[in-house]
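chain below, 313 aa
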Amino acid sequence: MTTDIISNSSVDLVIFTIVDESKISPSMVEDGLVSFGPELPIRSDYPRLGEGLSLFVVTMAAPLDEKGNPTGKRILPGGEVGLQETLLRAAQRIAMERLGLKLMGRIRQLGTFDDPYRDPSGRVISFAYWAMADFDNLRKYLGGRDEIGLELVNSLEYMDYFERFWGPLEKFDGVSRFGFRTMPTPTGIRGHAKTTTISMPSGRILGLDHDEMVFFAWRKLRHAFESRLDPVTFLGVNPLGSEFRLSRLQEFREVCRGERVQRDTFKRLMLNQEKFINYTGKTDRSRPGKPAQLYSLSMPEPMESTNLDSDWD
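prediction:
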């Protein structure tokens, strides 16, 4: 970049990816490219690297000091804004420069982070954007100069861990490693209450205020499963394949939303959706037990790449 930079403004990117753990090799974990966090320690036999969807966020190494040592925890990909750039264009450029990703669509503005003390290096106002990237496109850029890696946001295993320590998931309006929201009390004495990593025993995960960015972006991501559009169209990625079991779609929903749903309830919900999924007429006999019906997404018109509502929850 040239010197025509607004030095006190930056764009930070919350890039999620949904990964089947069968695609994560032990070497990715050993090299520090994939982190499951201290809550779910990896044992020497890597028992969890089997099949199952997990939600990750893309991170990079913190800047180095004069001695070449990291100045803090890992951070989100980000960069400065050029004088001739819109914020959206800056976000797209940074995604290409940092991650090799061409995010021309489905990249959404999250909000402005302007605490005067958010960055110890000086007054920096951050304009955050979020998106979902396909893991197969992203994986070849892991590592490298910026030590691009993945940090776990949620998985079915983490939800089991959370439930053991915090109580039944029914008490919460979504849980993740970066925070959760507690459901209102039946009496109405307390409404929804959010908790982020600053108040969680495991503490901060990323540097600066990037934990909050991930948390609020994750709350936005959950909307992908609330509309009549299928989540693949909303998010722009397809971790399900062309044909899938309903249990696979349910796992996709549960991991991204951070909540459980009863199998029968989920089946009724999905089959009652207009133009959402279609029965292919095929069955899957690859697993023990009763053969499962296979479905495909109907794939309605894609959503426009616009900045969605900015109210945070």
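Confidence is low (pLDDT under 50) at residues 43-47, 300-313. The chain is about 25% helix and 25% strand.
thats it, cya
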